[in-house]
Amino acid sequence: MPARHRILHLSDIHFGLEDTRALDWVEQLIADNPPDAVVITGDLTMRARHREFDAATQWITALDVPVSVSIGNHDMPYFDLIERFANPYKRFEGMKALVEREIDLPNLALIPLKTVRRWQPRLDWSKGWVTEDALENTLRALDRVPEGMKAIVMVHHPLREVGTQGTALTKRGSHALEELAKRGVLAVLSGHVHDAFDIEEATQHGSVRMIGAGTLSQRTRSTPPSFNELTWDGERLTVEVRNLQDVDTPDMMIDDVPEDAMPPRSEGEPVAPVRQIPRVDPPVH
Questions:
Q1: What confidence tens digit (pLDDT) does each residue in 263-278 have?
Q2: Distance CA 163, CA 5 (A)
Q3: What pLDDT, in 10s, does the model give residues 204-229?
Q4: How many CB atoms lie within 10 A of CB 101?
Q5: Can you list the domains of the chain with their CATH numbers?
């Protein structure tokens, strides 16, 4: 019988503006019922400040399970441009072994794909970009996966291109999806949007399942803070969106990846309208 795996998919914790109640809840869930792995798809910090990375490092390294961490656009130095260009990942030093870590479980491989750049030839550097080198690293790792073993790819930005090249969510994202489709990956896990989703993205080589996790920060977009619990039974990958409000999974998931994938920002900026989540009131006796 194939091994059954349980993976927790967290994202966009944004230490500096984290939701402490949600984090305490997740930490206790992991301690009480350890998963086979925890995947954190980027944006560990709010502004990549040293104190934010210190808090992120302390929380993440205390999780007593295998962890892989992706780099998000918020994790690149904001205020020190010299460090951003010369040594952009210096502040990950305390969790260096976990960054873009491949995790091999029985019959299932978790493989990273980097979607951030230290600079881009467009004004909005928050958007994704799959470089040729980053994609080649991932494809080589996928090509090493033994026959009969499945793979999940971990990214920060959803691999979706919309609009023109200048406004694409993730530059060369469509090309990356085509290459991943050729290799039959189970799914691509991402963050960035701050709402959960589970959709099929068509390519000329077949469809690719894209699964996004919500946020564990105060920077919610249209749903409460949440994370994904994935279960792979050797034949089927299922997703349950977990949240403190016990909202059902279908009601937590957005229908598609929006072109404007950024959540409302803090510090006085207007808050986006919150999607109304259906709730059923208990009967009155």
A1: 665 544 334 333 444 4
A2: 37
A3: 999 999 999 999 999 999 999 999 99
A4: 19
A5: 5-252 (3.60.21.10)
